[in-house]
Amino acid sequence: MAGERKHYTAEFKRQAVEMLNSGKSGKQIEQDLKIGAGQVYRWRRELAGETRGLRAFPGKGVPRDQEMARLQRENKELREERDILAKAVAYFSKNPKKSSGS
């Protein structure tokens, strides 16, 4: 077990940092969450000290990030399709077919 490194989600890290505002000491938070000594303060520096905001704790490109990129591409594609269909409806509603025979 020695040398085995634990990995925490960005959400877990943010919540741990938020706990510092509750009045508990960093040492108590670390004991409660069973994380290493000084870890919560490192996470706070990374979160607050970086101008990245939501990009703090980037991780290893987890599947969630890949899923988000896929969903953004799909969303763009669907918007384009919607816009094309809206233009087609507008075009055909302006130029109705005239019946021949009357």
Write the layout of secondary structure elements.
Elements: H1 10-19, H2 26-33, H3 39-49, H4 63-94
Helix pairs in contact: 1-3
Overview in brief:
This protein is an all-alpha fold and 102 residues long.
Shape: rod-shaped
Major sheet size, sense and barrel closure: none
Broad structural category: mainly alpha
| Strand segment tally | 0
Q: Spans of 5+ residues with little confidence (pLDDT < 50)?
A: none
**SSE pattern, N- to C-terminal:** HHHH
Rg, Cα atoms, Å: 26 Å
In what range is the share of β-strand residues? under 5%
SS element count, helices: 4
Number of separate domains = 2
Please, could you describe this protein's structure?
The chain has helices at 10-19, 26-33, 39-49, 63-94. With 102 residues, it is mainly alpha-helical. It folds into two domains: 1-59; 60-95. The mean pLDDT is 80.
Q: Any descriptors?
A:
102 residues; mainly alpha; 2 domains; 4 helices
